[in-house]
Amino acid sequence: MPVALHGTGVSRGIALGPARLLQRGRPDIPQYVLPPHLINEEVDRFISALEAARAQLQAIRQQIPAGTPTDIAAFIDTHLLMLEDATLTTVPIELILREGCNAEWALHMQQEALTRVFDQMDDAYLRTRRDDVEHAILRVQRILLDQTQREAAIAAEPEGGRIIVSDDLSPGELVLLHQHNVAAIVTEHGGPMSHVAILARSLGIPAVVGARHAGQYIRDNEPLVVDGRQGVLLAGLDAAGTAFYRARQQQEKRARAELHRLKDTPAITRDGTAITLFANIELPEDMQAARRVGAAGIGLYRTEFLYMNRSTPPDEEEQYHAYSKVVKALKGLPVTIRTLDLGADKTADGTTPERGATNPALGLRAVRLCLREPELFRPQLRAILRASQHGTVRLLIPMISTVQEIRQVQELIHEAKDDLRRRRQPFAENIAVGGMIEVPAAAICAADFARRLDFLSIGTNDLIQYTLAADRLDETINHLYQPLHPAVLRLIHTTLRAGAAAGIPVTMCGEMAGDPLLTRLLLGLGLTEFSMPPPALLEVKRIVTGSALEPLHRAADSILRQDDMEQSALLLAELNSDD
Ligand code: PEP
Ligand code: MG
After folding, report:
1. What's domain 259-575's architecture?
2. Per-state percent for the chain, helix, strand, coil, to nearest 5
């Protein structure tokens, strides 16, 4: 019988293929042999996991409320003692060194050996201690597995064309999966503006997020269909159902080919205003996709993806080569390189951050992290400056919220330029420096920011989340995450006016810029520079070339005056109705 699971469609496209389940915390213990040069690292990984397990237990022990029976603390102490005993500390290390195996497997072998000893005991009480050993080991295994298992599973992915069904994915994991040519992704959690969703759109991978409990209904390898526009995952389709979706897939392909004819058509409105359509990219290779759709340049290069799935950050040289590759390939077209925006859902090691533990989106993220760790920031600034000699580079600072941050970054850029002069390394002296407007404070103070910067770029993904206090990752409040909220539209308008008054360009590089349903409204609000995932660009161009600005300004004015976004949605539907 067919099963249809619904979520939010976040990246369009139809995919058909076998399922690949990726659930966090799966109990299987991976077994692999390590090359000799990685064995010491494996021992260190095991030691760190042991330490983390002990720290977890100590934290639990400290939180035991007063009045709790002493047995509970004694129980935890027993586990702590086990994690300090040579049978669990020294022996697995000996096994890793002797067998060259991974830490999980070494621990598993030792657990089997201990279980055999306990099983031979006559004393029933002592036999129950076997469970304690198992629990203590499981704690360490979970820590080890969480760090590596999914990555190893992804790295071992045998063939392309699969539909990944996962509880959650990090952007780093999606990058790895993309290298294995996944056909589509479905996650149980997540919202449309999570970086996984954005990345999927950018890479043209059909994606559905927030498909609750999908993992429980799907079996590994069973044939699935994903409709990324409708946000649905289908299993158990009969031949007719499968043929229907194959036909739709072909139809979409034809529609894309049709749009492709617009590649070299200038993006000019019917009344003659030139509109700039840039592409957003995450990896240097993505510039090919940007060029294929005839983008006017790169309006947002999210450099943090260079820092993912690795234990040490890329050095200046590696960054210089990555940025230069893009700049050279764009042959003089502008390339907007955004400085590191790690934090929140983008972590360097590719893991999904702990949810609820802190407030990562409001924390040490983006420019805040860079200013706190200038040693991380300086090589990047030098690399961007050096890449600027090969074309037109704009340097973009994410998440600024104060003029002090602008000043501090400018000071660091100044120092980086001095360093390069001393080293006699060339760079473009007049490189443009811009700031993202993605925090309400920045939008409200856009005029002050505009006086200090060469351009602004509106990051609506965060601007919406921070304005409406609606976590972009949380599927339970997706309904509150509303681009048409009057507060969001007014902040966008304020920013556009501030840019115009200061005579500097304002780009929009958040996902709103690539939503064809919003193109006319944004044109009406006065936006002339859009930056979006490459697969969205030609559809937006089609709307731009078919629109005249004058009536759009009037319609946008009236939408801007609405105090109720449902009313705005009706006016917008009217505005789009003659498309
Ligand atoms: C944004 O917030 O709109 C943006 C473009 O930045 P990111 O999505 O990378 O946070
Ligand atoms: Mg942002």
Report:
1. Alpha-Beta Barrel (3.20)
2. 55, 15, 30
